Amino acid sequence: MNESSEIKFSIRNYVAVVAILIVLIMTVLDVTVVNVALPVMASRFGITDSQAVWIITVYQLVITMLLLPMSSFGDRYSYRRSFLVGVVIFTAASALCAASNGFAMIVAARALQGVGAACVMGVNIALTRLIYPRNVLGRGLALNAMVIAIATAAGPTIAGAILAVASWHWLFLINVPFGIAAFFLGKHLLPHNPPKSARGNYDWTSAVENVVVFGLIFLALGSFARKGDVTLNSLILAAGLITGVFYVRRQLHRESPLLPVDLFRIRLYSLSISTSVSSFIAQNLAMISLPFLFLNTHGFSEITTGLLMTPWPLATMIVSPLAARFVERHNAGATAACGMGVYAVGVLLLLLAPASISEWNIAWRMAVCGIGFGMFQTPNNIVMVMATPVHRTGGAGGMQSTARLVGQTLGATLVTVVFSLTSNMVQSVHLCLTLALAFAIVAGLFSLGRISRIKKPLA
């Protein structure tokens, strides 16, 4: 009887994973599908290409601003409640995106989507740890990573297929039924936080400082990219940096800091975070700029552009689990550095590609980029986990996601800067690829610096 109850309980928990996976798919797709649709939406709203990038940037920026505060809120109160509220906000915002009839409205709706995504992403790992028994937790984390990779791989193809038969509005409408399903599954199946003897007060001051710091700094950078008022933007940037100083100083004196600055004293961890930020800048510089080249310069259709973007994430999806097994017996830092090297070669091949090029010759170059990023990403994440004390896994996980989002947001911002400074599309994309190559080399060098600090393989 007890055994039967245990099996029933386990099945209930595993089914609860579906709610998390559905929302993971939605939040990932809402970056990759919009990437492909940016040229179409720019034409629809009558905006420049550099302005269109803000449809992606604002989503990532809001998540970056709120991820750590939402993670801390869920830890102190309720992961389940944060997840459900996030699903409701994200689903409603998706409907608003689809209903948008102007650039300002869709930017506002995308920002609201970012609020919902931050609520969910801030507690995703924590909920996974509650659902899976300790002895199979690794499988749960691996499943999350696999689903994200599959969604990333499928996103460009899904976007191309939708745009071939329907308007861009359906890129957002598809979230609504999935969001409703995730809400009801989560409401009935997701576990509550374990009881705590001392919950502690929520650090609202640090949460506000986190929002202000990330918001002002990236707002100023984005406005600089759009050639806004230099004096005003400089003041905004200075205000963000000054607030950041007070924010960091406050965290240094907290027992459980919202921003885990104490972990940066661990050299291996700080190198891994620096590597992660640089690598995602390199990734977004290429992935956001290339669709403009394929559509506007080479004249490929929307569905062809989607298919051309697919080999990259598809190769990453295939290589990532192989890299995870490889680093069980080999140095993870060296493996990640080799991955960045392969990625840099892929970017260089795209940069040196002839003006007249076939779809196949683009596709295999994209696959090389994906192979390199797959070799890099999983070992890099493993190193970050290895470098973190067990009792700080939650804060470190939030910082890991923040590093990824900071890198992606900076990458998107740099694309905006390049597009606003150059008038020729080919030159703009080539400059973005050159910057992507430079940041890939930087990430590889950071990773090489970790080799001697990783004493032995994982096994």
Write up this protein.
The protein is mainly alpha-helical. It contains 18 helices and no strands.
Order of helices and strands: HHHHHHHHHHHHHHHHHH
Radius of gyration: 21 Å
Strand content: under 5%
How widely separated are the two ends?
A: 38 Å
- What structural class should be given to the helix and strand makeup? mainly alpha
Structural key phrases:
mainly alpha, 459 residues, 0% strand, single chain, 80% helix
Summary, kept brief:
The protein is mainly alpha-helical and 459 residues long. The protein has 18 helices and no strands. The chain is globular, with a radius of gyration of 21 Å.
List the helices and strands and how they pair.
Elements: H1 2-45, H2 49-52, H3 54-76, H4 79-99, H5 103-121, H6 124-131, H7 137-165, H8 170-173, H9 175-189, H10 204-225, H11 230-252, H12 267-297, H13 302-309, H14 311-326, H15 332-351, H16 359-386, H17 393-421, H18 425-448
